Amino acid sequence: MELLRSNLSRVQIPEPTHRIYKHECCLSFDTPRSEGGLFVDMNSFLAFGKDYVSWNYEKTRNPVYLHIKETPKSVPEDRPLKKPTLLAIGVDGGFDNNEPEYKESYSIVILPDFVSLPFPSVELPEKVRIAVDTVMSAVGAEKREQVAAWTAEEKKVSEHALTLQQIKSGVVIPPSGWKCSKCDKTENLWLNLTDGMILCGRKNWDGTGGNNHAVEHYKETNYPLAVKLGTITADLEAADVYSYPEDDSVLDPHLAQHLAHFGIDFSTMQKTEMTTAERELDQNTNFDWNRIQESGKELVPVFGPGYTGLVNLGNSCYLAATMQILFSTHSFISRYFSHQSLKLAFEMAPADPTLDINMQLTKLGHGLLSGKYSIPVAEKDVATGDVRQEGIPPRMFKSVVAAGHAEFSSMRQQDALDFFLHLLDKVERGNNMRPDLDPSRSFKFGVEEKILCSSGKVSYNKRDDCILSLNIPLQEATNKDELEAFNNQKADKGLEEDNMSTDEIVRPRVPLEACLATFSSPEQIRDYYSTALKGKTTAIKTTSLTSFPDYLVLHMRKFVMEAGWVPKKLDVYIDVPDVIDISHMRSKGLQPGEELLADDVPEEAMESAQPVANEEIVAQLVSMGFSQLHCQKAAINTSNTGVEEAMTWLLSHMDDPDIDAPISHQKSDVDQSSVDTLISFGFAEEVARKALKASGGDIEKATDWIFNNPNASLSDMDVSSSSSALTPAESALPDGGGRYKLFGIVSHMGTSTHCGHYVAHILKEGRWVIFNDSKVGISTNPPKDMGYLYFFQRLDN
Q1: Looking at 317, 453, 515, 631, which residue is catalytic?
Q2: UBP-type domain: which residues (predicted)?
Q3: What is the pLDDT of residues 686-724, one digit of tens each?
Q4: Do the beta carbons of residue 704 and residue 639 sit within 8 Å?
């Protein structure tokens, strides 16, 4: 006890602002349930496993720790699995994984000799007792954000429900057989509680749902409330009532009275439709292991180093699939595992290692690759009865990699491609002091765009990239005869694909070679300003690569616009060979006899490049129910490329804090910090100022302006004044031969990249392995033709 009293100055009582870690080690995935328990530093409130707490003592000299150990309680084997009623994790009514209950025990441990004192004990100093009680009662920092993000907001009583005026129109609503008053829709129908109109719901971005008639009726009449038919039962609180002015699902305390106005006896109604919340919950609970069984065969679980699963934190499968593949590359393995020890990473980390990207990547790398956590657990999978592993929860990694990002820090599903690009940017910044160690470089390559003006002169523009985004030319399908026969059969029999089995449906098969050829094929550029002609003309752009990366990532653009400008996910197979050769895509640089266009662009031409939204694109987006301002921003931010690109941008930026801010056309002097940012990208100051002036000071738009106006570029990225493109050595990019072997696939199930489920398949030790969150098994039939992202490794010459 005297030893503890002599170290009281190193004990701190937590304040409300302190982040208290008590569920997981900051350097590993050890928890209070691990063999050695968990040690909480009573000065910094960081937690460490038994093998790592001495490192913290050596670094900080903090000697006093709260030791937490959890041991399982005995639980009846026939305990029923509770059905979730709330889209939440770790709260009452949320998901129940049927985990055993645990008993906690505590003690005070003093390092370096691990002297242990019992807790609770009246003999302990009051400061220690208060500090420990505060730690024990606090919500751990590891879980606080996760639970808060997952807990669904409770419905609120609508302000319009209390004052709703109903029209005496004599309308009587039958108990069934409903149809939209303006179209033939018989599902997703909403009853307006003011005038009794039955109208279809909003059109989903994938073309499903309704035809927007209910929301259009509100815009015409301002009648605020509607209830979804098919959700009305004796339990009125469960009915789906929507308030258009409040733009949310709400409670109507007078719903019985409002329904009676139209002759509806709610006590006799049967539930035939899911509410909005139930549909979301259903999508999050139904993606189980059985859904991705391959050809009906049982998948054999696999354990050991490199076969560790990642626990789904709630719509985090995009992160899990991406990280499993990245930690199968030599560059990431070397940087964060084989050549980076946990102790060294901790010694180099700041005071709080949970906030350091390199520390958390090293922790994740060791967690995935060491095999320490990839072991069978005693309890079998509740759903399948299979032997399983617990997997590791990437909470701290997700927190640090998503810091400051509105989407990745949420619990919403995200695009795996967006996350991959975001992560590489974070990794590059985290290695800015040692670029030679940067594993993101292994994915980078040079892209060269050659623009041939109608004058016969050329311009070359260069940029770096780390993905090849490929359009899918359906006209190059190799099974056109089968497709035609299938479509004719459907038409003759009046069949819908929704009512057909997967085996019956014939999908287009497009060779990957055709997608790569489309990337390199010539493309027309209209309204291109030619310095040779002193005016706008049509130019031809061809794209090639100036270097080949160590790892080539192909992104399949599976979302297109179908008839009526309805966005749709392509139901298509891509025939991907195990080995590809892209040698033919290498740039040849400036050719003999080619004459370069001059660099100088007149001020009036630069002014004319002021971003203006394409009216046709805006009109198509507005017709889908989006606001005029949002549609204009989407068109401008995608350089008026097309409706599909604008739709993708719009869906991923709906929650931006400035989405409702007016479009800026500022012509005044640009901000110097923005100029400096563009200069850091490699652009010359003169070009940076022109671009920022043309784009209203927006850095992202300015970057697009530079790439879309290559004649204005005077930076090192523009080789119009040089006889050849920069070599890979000059731009510090890896390079080699053009032959690549497929080793990783990220596949996606769902109608949008922002919903559904992601799974990774990885070629390991000569066999394909499926990584489905925490479940890892040998794959007997990897979906090579259904990938969203394909990862290739360059073969040695």
Answers
A1: 317
A2: 156-266
A3: 777 777 776 667 776 677 667 656 555 433 333 333 334
A4: yes
